[in-house]
Amino acid sequence: xxxxxxxxxxxxxxxxxxxxxxxxxxxxxxxxxxxxxxxxxxxxxxxxxxxxxxxxxxxxxxxxxxxxxxxxxxxxxxxxxxxxxxxxxxxxxxxxxxxxxxxxxxxxxxxxxxxxxxxxxxxxxxxxxxxxxxxxxxxxxxxxxxxxxxxxxxxxxxxxxxxxxxxxxxxxxxxxxxxxxxxxxxxxxxxxxxxxxxxxxxxxxxxxxxxxxxxxxxxxxxxxxxxxxxxxxxxxxxxxxxxxxxxxxxxxxxxxxxxxxxxxxxxxxxxxxxxxxxxxxxxxxxxxxxxxxxxxxxxxxxxxxxxxxxxxxxxxxxxxxxxxxxxxxxxxxxxxxxxxxxxxxxxxxxxxxxxxxxxxxxxxxxxxxxxxxxxxxxxxxx
Length: 382
Ligand code: NAD
What we know:
Elements: E1 2-5, H1 20-28, E2 32-36, H2 47-52, E3 56-58, H3 61-66, E4 70-72, E5 94-97, H4 105-113, E6 117-120, H5 135-154, E7 162-164, E8 167-169, E9 173-177, H6 181-192, E10 196-200, H7 206-212, E11 216-217, E12 227-229, E13 232-233, H8 238-253, E14 257-260, H9 275-279, E15 286-289, E16 306-309, E17 312-315, H10 325-342, E18 344-345, E19 348-349, H11 356-361, E20 362-365, E21 368-369, H12 372-381
Parallel strand pairs: 1-2, 1-4, 2-3, 4-5, 5-6, 9-10, 9-14, 10-11, 14-15, 15-17
Antiparallel strand pairs: 6-20, 7-8, 12-13, 16-17, 18-19, 20-21
Helix pairs in contact: 1-10, 4-12, 5-6, 5-10
Bound molecules: nicotinamide-adenine-dinucleotide.
Nicotinamide-adenine-dinucleotide binds next to helix 5, helix 6 and strand 13.
């Protein structure tokens, strides 16, 4: 089978779905691999590196997509006047990409019409067997790391305690809201930089994980269980939300940096940090809203922008993994390669919906959306 990899077409996207290391593995596994010229340039992989890994360079993206048996991408296929990959996809092409179907159900409908068999890597079940294929984890970890660096670069103070001839400065206080993959990486990064770190989450089992990276846990006893299964959280009841707000008021006010990462069902961001909480922080404090892609955890967040709120800077970055294209591409590439290899035999990918991993992340097939939650999200828009 022929695997095709195109250049990601958004101006803000600097990652590539497959790096040369993975091309060589897939060629060894019996596939042929073709890459659009320049696709890996921002990720530190030039055309020569792909050729050395036995891939073929293609200059015409349309011919590349039309000839693909498997199309590997970071983002959903483009659908713009300048470049409409979706019109080039032939029926039964297997697509493996981070489609974010619950955020983009209408795009999934258009994708279904092509007849593609589309798998979304962000819907891969969070199981031990699927761990090596989990692009959501790889990318969230980058966001957590980079979020702390953004805060450190903007903060008008040191993060660590420092003693010098001029005396001692005390460490900054970093508070993380939501402590799954991104949050735990943010805590570990802030800790390594010497900050005093605290975190909260609504799933009580996370307390131990927070403490394991050297952070202090703060939380409230919830009236209603907030676990939605599979390690995901559900929305809090109005009473629990109020009790959480009461707890957060003091914690946010005393922090120099607040990093928010909370998501419901891994997709949408609950509003947790109020305007009042932001204004209670000392001028010069920083908030990084890492849930901006899902709408943001802060009432005042403007996704993709930084706003100044009476001296507190609220940064709401979008697609942070794209700002670290080399390692983000390497990890994404290893994840999708693992996915393809797991279900292949001698260069042929087998669609097997009896397999729980494929069943969990298959979004479109036979010109239909087959992913139940995506169908529900689409109906909710009607
Ligand atoms: P996520 O992005 O869905 O959510 C981030 C965190 O926000 C979660 O811990 C959630 O409990 C928390 N949250 C939601 N609402 C909140 C609120 N109001 N206040 C405070 N915190 C709130 O999380 P994720 O990184 O996608 O991970 C989801 C789950 O999957 C976790 O349990 C994680 O351990 C698990 N996981 C498992 C595997 C695996 O086994 N292969 C891999 C990665 C993640």
